[in-house]
Amino acid sequence: MTIDFTGTTALVTGASSGLGASFATQLAQRGADVVLVARRDGRLRELAERIEREHGVRATPIALDLARPDAHTRLRGELEERGIRIDTLINNAGFGVKGAFVDADPARIAEMVQLDVAAVVALTREFLPDLVRSGRGALVNLASTAAYQPCPDMAVYGASKAFVLSFTEAIAYETRESGLRVLTLSPGATRTEFFDVVGTENAAVGRFQSPSQVVSLALRRLDGRRTPASIVSGRANALTSTLVRFLPRRLALAISGRVLAEPAR
């Protein structure tokens, strides 16, 4: 059964490119108005104009740095001023860095924790009551295949995504009696700007997917009679993420360390 998003509003973070832009576009195709949140105002406005022109829905761009500790309250204020209520929340914004933790820039690490963990929690808490009351939409939090094992050379990123996976699965259980569909989406390597920020594709494991492939899978799973609490995008990724659970922790760590330390191919 396909979810009817007509007459609902979806808030998508990290919407200026990649998975966020694809989520916004596919939700608009299904009739949802969309709120696009990211730092790059120009890109947001271009995407909003294209979505409105091609899909006939309302697209509202809001330029905001979600790494600010008060971002969730600022965003709530912006929406209230515009009279917008949210039915679906896609927490997609985030980034990673690669390299030994001992050499990492403390400010960059703090920014990553704020965006990848604290902002996800704050935005989920801010809007979850609205989503539950509506019962017509979904909550999707973006994790990663990095969530399923420790990630040497990407220690904080992997740990942040493990947090998102655990956190969102728990929320899915807590809200199971409501009409809200809650999903943790864990992509593998995806053709987005993520690796431009990381600085190397050496952080990529497995075959690349397109943003459209990943988002289409997420929406198909949301359409099902029973939404799973979490999914991994890509068959090989899903198999690997399942198998690693049966390995001794020490072995999984050693394999992950070797894979992530391999030179770029």
TrEMBL record:
InterPro entries: NAD(P)-bd_dom_sf, Sc_DH/Rdtase_CS, SDR_fam. One of its GO terms (molecular function) is oxidoreductase activity. Keywords: Oxidoreductase. CDD domains: SDR_c. Pfam families: adh_short (PF00106). Belongs to the short-chain dehydrogenases/reductases (SDR) family. This is SDR family NAD(P)-dependent oxidoreductase. It comes from Agromyces agglutinans.
